[in-house]
Amino acid sequence: MKRIVLLALAASLAACQSQSDPDLDQTGERPDLPQQSDTLLPAMKIPTPKGWGGELPTVPEGFTVTAIAKDLKIPRQMLLLPNGDILVAEGSGGHAPAVRPKDVIAGMIKKRGKSSVEGGNRITLLRDRDGDGQTDLQTTFIDGLDAPYGLAFVDGKIYVANQGNLVSFDYTEGATRIDGPGTEVTKLPSVINHHWTKAMTASPDGSKLYVGIGSNSNVGERGMDVEEDRAVIWEIDRQTGANRIFASGIRNPTALSINPWTEQLWAVVNERDELGPQLVPDYLTSVRQGAFYGWPYSYYGQHVDPRVRPQRPDLVRKAIAPDYALGSHVAALGLDFTTNGGLGGPFSEGAFVGEHGSWNRSDPSGYKVTFVPFRNGRPSGKPIDLATGFLKDGHARGRPVGVLFDEQRRALLIADDVSNTVWRVALQGGSAVPAGEARQSTR
Question: How large is the average pLDDT for residues 341-363?
Fold first, then answer.
């Protein structure tokens, strides 16, 4: 009965919330930012899961889309190994306690949009021996993990960012299973774990690993003492495990990747909630060493968030604006760059972004994979839809998470954690590349 009352309360209050303004442009380098609208409860609506029913995501003319892995257990991020094998991290972490009534309601609503499958706490290997876009082998590669998310490969080792630690595994090319617990490189902040995902990528020279560590709250409502080493990106020495804060005030960096044209670290970031359906835009940004990105005291540069106590005008003055807005509440969870011409045409140079989708606005946003065009190593132009159709008739047939560009096979892989599928988008008539001829990868 309590659950019914809370859901009814949420629905009635959400119905009173302001609607999105379709005239606002919230993508690009200078997004429109409306007035703040702090309410008792945000508009909360999440499309409930429903199967694909034999249909497929929608891709542009000239492309094909196929499911290369099914029956996964909450697929998150992916990694391409030197021999062309694909690793998929599967899991679900968190366990942060609710501290406000709206946390309880939000938790109920968000749960309605998730898969009923329990997270696998494992890594699955996918192998396509002849490069025809069909998986010949799908098998458990590493199990016994704790909500794995970020993956990297450097100098014969596979690195896995669990929700509470970073571990490494020795790898032999062609292996289809690794047993044993691995070697712990360092602990990762895991107290409360409001945002549990630990995104990861390696530096261009492989000497450092970058790990994204999300905040423990929306805007510090749990107290700032639990935010130590949160809303940051760590730089970790791969050999010693020594770490330092590389950038801070970055609320929830959910995917990291190295820009191939500048060799600079970039991230997609989920911004704060409860300021209205069009605040605050999630974003794609370069990550500058020592930079402060505003959280929780300000957003999109120096726009002050009045809910935070105490205020910190000294930090607001230091806050820098991100490079590129993706839209409010799209929940970007995937990022990868093109190399060597990408998928051609408008998808030649830029970044693919997996948008998991909103839960706190009455008109859903995200639920697709977009492409941000780049020129000379910088965003240039409006985002382009690559894979859509994840929403239909008010239901979520899927929700994109990690994205992975396979240069040799001219394909983009998409992890979908509602249908528990990995999708493959490729050019029609693309040439096959046999296993063993894929590029070296440290991502």
Answer: 95
Question: How far apart, in Å, are the Cα atoms of 8 and each of 12, 14, 99, 325?
Answer: 6, 10, 20, 33
Mean predicted confidence (pLDDT) in 256-276 = 97
Angle separating helix axes 101-112 and 2-15, nearest 10 degrees: 90
pLDDT higher at 14 or 325: 325
pTM of the shown model: 0.93
Show me where the domains of the chain are located: 2-15+39-427
Return phi, psi of residue 71, to 5°.
60, 35
Alpha-carbon gap, residue 141 to 139, rounded angstroms: 6
323 closest CA partner among 33, 26, 32, 29: 29
Cα angle 382, 386, 438 (rounded to 5 degrees) comes to 115
pLDDT average, residue stretch 395-424: 97
Q: Which CATH superfamily is 2-15+39-427 part of?
A: TolB, C-terminal domain (2.120.10.30)
Q: Is 282 exposed, middle or buried (0-12, 13-18, 19+ CB in 10 A)?
A: buried
